[in-house]
Amino acid sequence: MQAVEALIAPSLTDLGYEVVRVTMMGVELPTLQVMAERLDEDAMTVEDCASISRTVSAILDVEDPISGAFTLEVSSPGLDRPLVRQKDFERYTGLEAKVELRQALNGQRRYRGVLAGYADGVVTIVTENGATDLPFGEIDKAKLIITDELLAAGSAEEAKQGRA
After folding, report:
1. Would you call 116 exposed, middle or buried from its count of C-beta atoms within 10 A (0-12, 13-18, 19+)?
2. C-alpha–C-alpha distance, residues 137 and 18, integer Å
């Protein structure tokens, strides 16, 4: 999916969006999921998703990087967003997350705790057992956990943007 992301990212950037993740799900009729967010960090709207969908569809029709039929799905990351980029771990420092590693670190693959930052290729997470440094390159999956703090942060962001 990196090839698809490389194809669509420049056009979406020109429109004011950033690709968060591109994944293919399903087998019978696969779904290409494009997750994006606004560069200005405003909330995504249905119109934003429709604009992205039209642009991505046009690019994929011309470039044809995926063989066979598939469904295109465009979405925003949502509150319990996946954390996939280094800057995601920086931006959401102080919030609770689940992180799963590709391989166990000190006998553990899954961590749940408060993100304490990102520096030099390392994500720090504070769990009930203390702070642990996780190599960014070893992270398989990570996402925010919906908590009162996350909801409050989302409400504060909406108020700042005049939507509350």
Report:
1. middle
2. 21
List the beta bridge partners of residue 98.
112, 143
pTM tops 0.70? yes
At which residue do the structure tokens 């044809």 appear? 64
**Residues 7, 65: contact at Cβ < 8 Å?**
yes
The 10s digit of each residue's pLDDT in 45-54 is 999 999 999 9
Closest CA to 34 of 10, 18, 46: 18
CA dist 141 and 84 (Å) reads 8
Where residue 61 falls among pLDDT bands split at 50, 70, 90? Answer: very high
Amino acid symbol at 55 = T
Distance of CA 84 to CAs 19, 21, 55, 122, 123, Å?
Answer: 10, 7, 23, 13, 12
| Assigned token pair, 103 | 């391989």
